[in-house]
Design a protein that fits this description.
Keywords: Membrane, Transmembrane, Transmembrane helix. The protein is mostly helical. Helices cover about 70% and strands about 0% of the residues. The chain is built from 14 helices and no strands.
Length: about 375
């Protein structure tokens, strides 16, 4: 199903590990350059700004092709309008396929055609179904998942996650007020189930090509789980979807649960992140704590904003200062010292990379000596009894 050369994908992984080893000081710059020279990889772009530039260039190329096609279809305006976005989507798929065969991967040009094809599918289905949101979300999710599986496009996985969540929401909306009322709990259960499913898939993953996309989906589930029952989100959506008006002295149903959820979930994220040394969950816990504080202050302002910001800054400074002071001398576990290796699995290929770069990428070749040694005994140097 993957369109790219798997050998070059493996080489990309090894080159990334070599870069991590170089940054950690385990291999020299010459070894790193030798590894990059000997391992051919796909055409990718790691510089974000350059990749955005290529994306804009690819978008211009994509729109130019679609505009040229439109010149031939303007004569039959009504019929062409019904099918033109399907044609544009086909152009996106064809462009993505062509660029992938030319070994473009996460380059910017391929991003334009892949994301363009997904968006055109959504517009085409919207026109055909007259804006039926559930069907639109379903086909967008399907197209995005196909793009991720075939082209290993991580941004497509993000689109897939958003589209699947939208599909769930629209399905619940169709159940009426009952569906809207239980939507937070359904979203919470859905996010939790998907989190453990993606975590299990990552644990049993045999092909590393899908790791980044699955990690993104796993992180998305964590964020969705928190926001699904955050008090501010639930209260504001209740007003928008159900027309619920919270009068002074009253509150939304199950308010105590949503208060507890808003406070406890970020703490659970933080504790679990420190326990498992999960950096993404750690950052998400910080963001969730910040949003929880914003949620409380949004409805209950105890102090003026400037005083609250000052006190909060002092508290954060104190926590950071004493944490650094306590952890700066630790050599293992939770420590303030910088990582020599960014990824915990970088040592898996360290020996192979160092051996390969030292012995010219061919460590299995045995050197045949032109000199022939004689017999000799067990303690001799190879000399026989004859001259």
């Amino acid at each position: 199903m993957i369109v790219h050369d798997k050998k070059k994908l493996d080489n990309e992984f090894l080159v990334d590990q070599a870069d991590s080893l170089y940054n950690g000081g385990f291999i020299s710059k010459e070894q790193k350059k030798f590894i990059e020279k000997e391992l051919p990889v796909l055409r990718s772009q790691s510089n974000v700004l350059v990749r955005i530039g290529f994306f804009l260039l690819g978008s211009l190329l994509y729109s130019s092709i679609c505009g040229m096609i439109s010149l031939f279809g303007l004569s039959s305006e009504h019929i062409y309008f019904q099918i033109c976005f399907y044609i544009f989507a086909a152009v996106g798929f064809a462009g993505a396929e062509l660029l992938s065969h030319q070994e473009y991967h996460n380059h910017g040009l391929d991003d334009a055609f892949i994301l363009g094809a997904i968006s055109q599918i959504g517009i085409a289905i919207a026109i055909t179904t007259e804006g039926y949101e559930t069907v639109i979300a379903f086909f967008v999710a399907f197209a995005a998942f196909f793009m991720f599986i075939r082209y290993l496009h991580v941004l497509s996985m993000l689109v897939f996650c958003i589209a699947v969540t939208a599909f769930l929401f629209f399905e619940m909306f169709e159940l009426g007020d009952i569906g809207k009322a239980i939507l937070p709990f359904i979203a919470m259960i859905f996010a939790g189930a998907c989190y453990f499913i993606t975590k299990k898939i990552i644990k049993n993953l045999t092909e590393s090509y899908y790791y980044n996309g699955l990690l993104l989906a796993n992180s998305f589930c964590l964020a969705l789980f928190y926001f699904s029952c955050n008090y501010l989100v639930v209260r504001e959506l209740s007003g928008e979807l159900l027309g619920t008006e919270v009068k002074p002295g009253t509150d939304i149903p199950f308010a105590f649960f949503f208060y507890a959820f808003t406070v406890l979930v970020p703490i659970i994220y933080l504790v679990q992140a420190l326990k498992t040394k999960d950096r993404i969950m750690l950052w998400l816990s910080f963001l969730a704590i910040g949003f929880s504080i914003f949620t409380i202050r949004f409805y209950y302002s105890v102090l003026p904003a400037e005083v609250a910001l000052t006190v909060g800054g002092l508290v954060l400074f104190a926590i950071a200062y004493f944490s650094i002071k306590k952890l700066k001398e630790k050599e293992s576990g939770l420590t303030f010292k910088p990582d020599r290796i960014n990824h915990s699995d970088s040592f898996l290929n360290a020996e192979a990379l160092i051996v390969a770069s030292t012995f010219g990428m061919k460590p299995e070749v045995k050197t045949v000596s032109p000199m022939e040694f004689g017999g000799g005994g067990f303690s001799g140097g190879g000399s026989g009894e004859s001259f």
